[in-house]
Amino acid sequence: xxxxxxxxxxxxxxxxxxxxxxxxxxxxxxxxxxxxxxxxxxxxxxxxxxxxxxxxxxxxxxxxxxxxxxxxxxxxxxxxxxxxxxxxxxxxxxxxxxxxxxxxxxxxxxxxxxxxxxxxxxxxxxxxxxxxxxxxxxxxxxxx
Length: 144
Prior knowledge:
mainly alpha, 7 helices, about 75% helix
């Protein structure tokens, strides 16, 4: 027969796990802040070529590295569009920026497991490219 754990035991185990992960989460937050400080969106805008597929791929790559939250994505997208970055690149960048986060992989692996983290992040990068291309083409902002 399986021993049933009390709510108190479960809460203590959960608190220990959370407290044990705080140093890694703090490190991830600091690393993201450093990346955002040294890589400006004006710098990113010089990386885009004007080619829809290349811009989409570049946007997904840099969005994956520079993780962010969805609330700030509207402001970031506006600034990137104002800098002359294509809608393909901006859409791909923002989708990857919110869903991937390569910087967070060590913390995610610790909490959710290696296989899950690799599969989730790989699919998120691929889908950010697909979502970007589909969204822009459906909106009528296609290739010029």
